[in-house]
Design brief:
The protein is α+β, with helices and mostly antiparallel strands. It has a domain of 66 residues: Immunoglobulins (Immunoglobulin-like), CATH 2.60.40.10. A hairpin with a 2-residue loop joins strand 6 and strand 7.
């Protein structure tokens, strides 16, 4: 992952003269590389998305993202801002996952046991 606007660096295992970079919009671009260099630096990462890079036998895919810490924070918030004037705060804790399947399974088992008992009571 690369932050939008930062340079992407790739170590080259063999010397290459050119590299082909395909951006997130699908347009390809050829980048000249110094043959003595062992590293490719691509700095035109202004659009976010998936980039494909091919240089000689090296081929890689990298993503350009905003990498915003506020966007990535998924922790529950104590206060939510709604508009300019209203804010909602957490007032009480509520259980969200009430599992009913155990009670339904026990009720089904009870019905099956009753049917089994009723059947054997009549036949014996």
């Amino acid at each position: 992952m690369v932050r939008a606007g930062d340079a992407f660096r790739l170590s080259l295992s063999q010397a290459a003269r050119t590299a082909k970079v395909t951006g997130p919009d699908g347009k390809s671009r050829v980048v000249e590389i110094d043959p003595r260099s062992r590293e490719l630096v691509f700095g035109e990462t202004f659009k976010q998305g998936v980039y494909h890079l091919a240089a000689g036998t090296n081929s890689t895919t990298f993503c350009v993202n905003l990498l915003d810490a506020a966007e990535s924070n998924i922790a529950p918030r104590e206060e939510l801002p709604f508009g300019r004037y209203a804010k909602v705060t957490a007032t009480r804790l509520k259980q969200a996952n009430a599992e009913l399947w155990r009670w339904l399974a026990m009720a089904g088992l009870g019905v099956l046991l009753f049917e089994w008992w009723w059947y054997h009571k009549r036949t014996v």
